[in-house]
Sequence to fold (124 residues):
Amino acid sequence: QVQLVESGGGSVQAGGSLTLSCAASEYSYNMYCMGWFRQAPGKEREGVATIDWHGATEYAGTVKGRFTISKDNAKQTLYLQMNSLKPEDTAMYYCATGIRGGICSVVRSEANYWGQGTQVTVSS
Fold:
């Protein structure tokens, strides 16, 4: 059964850090493009960061320089290190694998597999 299990969300003050993890089954992990998305209340889901098969990464402009996406192939786990968090980073964060649409990019919105989401709340 394909599964993406996220962990690591929580509540922090502005300027703090969190690391999200997404453990994947073998089938859901071996995909060309994986990444993190987020959705704040009343807003559309947006791409945050992506990483492709070769390790090439892309970030949304709002998080570039503060967030780092990485993966551990041995553990079949995707990570999102979030530093210098801001209140506007507050959202439900989802990992995704098998992101579709051609080149691996944060502008994509469709994926084959999604995690259940983990809440990140940043207070000022």
About this structure: DSSP finds one helix and eleven strands in the chain. Helices lie at 26-29.
